[in-house]
């Protein structure tokens, strides 16, 4: 398989990305290679500088860079030779099996929607993230920011997408789906959440266990946590900030260390015709490496094809 | 001042409440006394059992108890001699300056609305809570569960209520008001949050600093955090559960210890004609003591009278 990686995206690009790519090259499967997209001379000289002499990394030239603050749609329209545009081109032409970038999140979302596009039958693709579980392993939470507000049927579909993802990528048998709410009882929450509850409950394809609360994020109640992107984004950033506080205080713990964004390295976009992972803007080399390994798992588990099959058979 | 305390409310009532009342009696001001409401014989025998011989606690008889699972409105209508009904009666008749209970939250909210009622001009009273700040002290977050969804004008008013509370109860000069959102930029978030942003920005009575994110809860950006009750409840319960995890792991830290619900002991209802504090269902004696001390601070600062003045002058 070939994993495309944007060498120019992220606050510490291209250095951190090239370093991360070299780390990833040492850990990926024999049959996997990396396509490192960016300004050819810059990327090649960094690979040389960091002493990379292997054959797992190929450099793909991209003369332009979409900056972090640029308007996603405008930037993608004008910068057709940017690393993000090239990456999605490779993904669309199936010259890459996955595309990862720690660059402009909006451009990554828009790029995915304009190139490989949403899977037929998917109402709103979603950005997912990972929730460390006290018993070990991870659950998946979605959405964490692609859709600030969601209709009940969109939340229902997040339950389905998350369920398939938890089963095939996280290897959780019959994953438990919980709806994030302010109380356990049926009938709690906003009108949208109440309607989503009824839809999730009636959905025979998922193992819906009902409402969960903020205190249930890390326990064993649910493997898949369904919420709108406004709520998920707040939860995610709150967890990340708590990791930072613990880290600054010198408190280290295997469970809380998983709150570090580096641990999984990025957030997958679920529901588009391809494997796409968005990294954190501040991505370190370790985060980049883990983002690539996450993409490798997504490709191996044929996750987007499974989503497609689910909605088109 | 007289602070009424429901002896029968909470998972560990009446034992934990009576113990907490005795602890509070040792710490309250000379001029403050407690009205302990519950089954007279039970409460008196517990006071005796725990060796209380002071004159700061008076027992007020209430023959009925509203249980944790009861329907709030039905329970209040039928149990007119319950500790919660009696408590609100005392508050309404100004025989108590504050009423605290760790009992049925719904009954406390409904009781407040039916007895002392919302202050004229207040669209929706709110349950507030406290956010420990890394620099020390607390911020205030509202709503944390009274109103699952809120119109923009309600969120705007939360900004005003929180601002007055932060100034007079927490002693923060010119408190900074932040709107919880999934991004910093104006124009981010749901339609409601976007509209609330514009209203808060145009409000000359508060020091609105714009959107804040999940990562800003504990930093210096905002003293008052405005959000709907769905979001605030999730944030609050997530923080409490993280304290529990740290505690179980034996990790102790002055900042994280403030995530313990016991530290402030309860959540004030803001926007009704009286001082009301709702305790956690699992309230320990320490939590009860701190709930009483919180109520004392609210009475001293004349907080509900200040709210009233703000909307009626």
TrEMBL record, chains A, B:
Keywords: Acyltransferase, Cytoplasm, Lipid biosynthesis, Lipid metabolism, Phospholipid biosynthesis, Phospholipid metabolism, Transferase. Pathway: Lipid metabolism; phospholipid metabolism. The keyword Cell inner membrane does not apply. It holds the Pfam family FA_synthesis. Its main location: cytoplasm. GO terms for cellular component: cytoplasm. Gene3D superfamilies: Isopropylmalate Dehydrogenase. It is found in: Cytoplasm. GO terms for biological process: fatty acid biosynthetic process; phospholipid biosynthetic process. Its EC number is 2.3.1.274. It catalyses: a fatty acyl-[ACP] + phosphate = an acyl phosphate + holo-[ACP]. GO terms for molecular function: phosphate:acyl-[acyl carrier protein] acyltransferase activity. InterPro entries: FA_synthesis, Phospholipid_synth_PlsX-like. Catalyzes the reversible formation of acyl-phosphate (acyl-PO(4)) from acyl-[acyl-carrier-protein] (acyl-ACP). This enzyme utilizes acyl-ACP as fatty acyl donor, but not acyl-CoA. Belongs to the PlsX family. Homodimer. Probably interacts with PlsY. This is Phosphate acyltransferase. The gene is plsX.
């Amino acid at each position: 398989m070939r994993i495309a990686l944007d060498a120019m995206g992220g606050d510490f690009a291209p250095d951190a990305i090239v370093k991360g790519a070299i780390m990833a090259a040492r850990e990926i499967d024999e049959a996997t290679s990396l396509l490192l997209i960016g300004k050819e001379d810059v990327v090649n000289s960094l690979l040389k500088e960091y002493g990379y002499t292997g054959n797992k990394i190929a450099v793909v030239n991209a003369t332009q860079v979409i900056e972090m603050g640029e308007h996603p749609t405008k930037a993608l329209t004008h910068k057709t030779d940017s690393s993000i545009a090239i990456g999605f081109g490779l993904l669309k032409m199936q010259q890459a099996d996955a595309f990862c970038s720690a660059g402009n999140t909006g451009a990554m979302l828009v790029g995915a929607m304009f190139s490989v596009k949403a899977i037929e039958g998917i109402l709103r693709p979603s950005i997912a993230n990972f929730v460390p579980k006290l018993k070990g392993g991870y659950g998946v939470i979605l959405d964490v920011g692609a859709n600030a507000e969601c209709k009940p049927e969109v939340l229902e579909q997040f339950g389905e997408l998350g369920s398939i993802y938890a089963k095939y990528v996280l290897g959780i048998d019959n994953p438990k789906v919980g709806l994030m709410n302010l109380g356990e009882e049926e009938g709690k929450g906003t009108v949208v959440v109440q309607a989503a509850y009824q839809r999730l409950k009636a959905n025979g394809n998922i193992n819906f266990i009902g409402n969960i609360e903020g205190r249930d994020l890390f326990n064993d109640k649910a493997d898949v946590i369904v919420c709108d992107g406004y709520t998920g984004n707040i939860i995610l950033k709150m967890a990340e900030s708590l990791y930072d506080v613990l880290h600054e205080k010198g408190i280290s713990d295997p469970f809380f260390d998983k709150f570090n964004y580096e641990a999984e390295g990025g957030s997958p976009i679920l529901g588009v015709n391809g494997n796409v992972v968005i990294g954190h803007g501040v991505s370190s080399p370790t985060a980049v490496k883990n983002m690539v390994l996450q993409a490798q798992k997504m490709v191996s588990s044929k996750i987007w094809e499974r989503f497609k099959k689910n909605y088109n058979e």
